[in-house]
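Appendix B. Chain record.
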Amino acid sequence: MAQKYWRKYDLNLLVTFVTLMETRSVTGAAERLSLGQSAMSHSLARLRTMLDDPLFERRGHQMVPTARALDIAPKIEALLDTLATDVLTPPAFEPALFDGQIRLGLTDYAELIFAPALFDTLNQQLPLAQLSLRPVDRRHCLDAIKNDDVDAVIGVIPENSDILDSQVLYREQHVCLFDPQSTGLDAPISVADFVATPHALVSTYGQLSSPIDARLEALGYHRQVVMGSQRFLTVRQLLKGRQLLCTVPELMARLDTFNDANHLAFSPPPIDVPGFDIGLAWRHQASGHPKMQWLIDQITTIVDKRVASLKALSTTQPHAQEET
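C-alpha cells predicted for this chain:
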C-alpha cells in the first residue's frame, strides 16, 4: 500500500524545493544542482503540481515563497536531514555500547590458533557483547554467510563468490609434526623417513589421500596413510606417544611444539608442499556497515599479532626446529 501511495511522488523534487528556498532564483538553483534552466523550470512545475501550490512567485529578479512554502520549508529541511543522517549515513559503531552477538565462523584450525586471542581482545573491546564461535569448513562457508549464521569467517575462503567480500590475512605453510621419541625422527626429516613413517591425514572431505600422494608417486615413492580425520583437533591428540607423522599447517605445529605437555617436534616436508592462504570473509552487503568495518579491523589486528607471536617462538623456545 505504501509503495502504491508513494509511486506518484518524486522525492528528488524536495531537494529542488530546498534549493529554490535558499537561492530564490530558478537560474541560481539550476546552477547549484548542475541542471539546465529548462530542466529546473520543469522541476518547479512538477513541484507545484505535487504540492498543489504555486510555492514561488516572481517579483522582479527574485522568486518569493508563498505562505505555504514558508510553512512547509522547515518540515522538508528536517525530513531531508533525517534521511541524510539516520538513513543514508549509518550511525557510528560504539563497541563499548554494543550488547548483541559477534558470530564468527572458524575452521577447527582457525579456532585452535585464534580463539583465545579473539576472545581476549573482543571481550575487552565489547564488554556488553557475547562472542559466538561457530564451526565451518570450506564446504559450508558460503552457506553460513548466505544464511546469516555468522558475521564473518576465518579460514580457507572459496574464490569467485558474488556474495562474499574477503581479504587474505596471511600465507600458511605446511610442516611435518611428530613425536620424536615415539617415531625416532629428528628434523630435518628425509624422504625415506617421510615414507617409512605411518601417516595421519587431515582432509576436508574425509578422503585418505591428498596431493602429497601424487607428488610422492611422481618421485617413485609411496606413503602409508593409516588414519584420516576431518579435524586437526582430533589428529593432534594422537601424535603424542605414537609412531605417527602428520603434515599440518605451520602455526598449528608451532603451537603444539611449544606446549610443554606435548613435546612434539616439526620439520619442513622433504618434498614440495604448496602453502595456502588464510582469509577473512563476510557478506558483501555488510561491507559498508560501521560494525563490520570495525570488526574487520579488529580481526586483522588480532590475527597479525597472533601470527607474529607464534613465528617469534622459534627464537625463544627450547624445542624449536629451524626451517631449512
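Further analysis of this model is presented in Appendix C.
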